[in-house]
Amino acid sequence: MVKTDYIYENEAVMFEFYHIPQLLFIDEKYKEISSEAKILYGIFLSKLNRFPRHDSENKAYIICSIDEVAEYLHCSKPTAGKVLDELDSQNGVGLIEKVRRGFGTPNAIYVKDFATGLR
Predict the structure, then answer these.
(1) Which of 9, 24, 58, 95 lies at a 20 to 30 A Cα distance from 87?
(2) Cβ-based neighbour number of residue 64 at 10 Å
(3) Coil, helix or strand for 118?
(4) In whole angstroms, what separates CA 1 from the centre of its chain?
(5) For residue 61, what are the contacts with CB-CB under 8 A and spacing of at least 6?
(6) Each residue of 53-109: pLDDT tens digit?
(7) H or E element at residue 66
(8) Burial (0-12, 13-18, 19+ Cβ within 10 Å), 114
(9) Is residue 5 packed enough to be buried (19+ CB in 10 Å), middle (13-18) or exposed (0-12)?
(10) pLDDT value, residue 118
């Protein structure tokens, strides 16, 4: 018999993983975005799976502040903003859409389907 130990309260985080779609690394339309942007997209997908919200049209979104993005990526807020812009539908490749919710509140982030047009 193998001797095993219990997983305690703060140790459970060791078994959480971010999934990053392989397509982001092999498809030509995503070759221009940075690895940080691809990682952030994977983080957003994980958040969408765990903490989704839905608007009046039943579209799923997440709430994520620029401070949270900087914390996830271990970078400055200006760098976090640049990475978000790479993913954004207005400034970048279109994998997310940021919607302002009001002054002083984090944007709603609609995480878009990375495989659109490939099916």
Answers:
(1) 58
(2) 22
(3) coil
(4) 41
(5) 48, 52, 53, 54, 55, 99, 108, 109, 110, 111
(6) 999 999 999 999 999 999 999 999 999 999 999 999 888 999 999 998 888 889 999
(7) helix 66-73
(8) buried
(9) exposed
(10) 52
Rounded to the nearest angstrom, the gap between the alpha carbon of residue 20 and the centroid of all alpha carbons in its chain is 9
Report residue 83 as tokens.
């990475």
Identify the burial level of 17 via C-beta atoms within 10 angstroms of its C-beta, where 0-12 means exposed, 13-18 middle and 19 or more buried.
exposed
Cα separation of 44 and 47, whole Å?
Answer: 5
Place of tokens 């703060």: 10
Helix axes 66-73, 35-50, angle to 10 degrees: 120
Amino acid making up residue 119: R
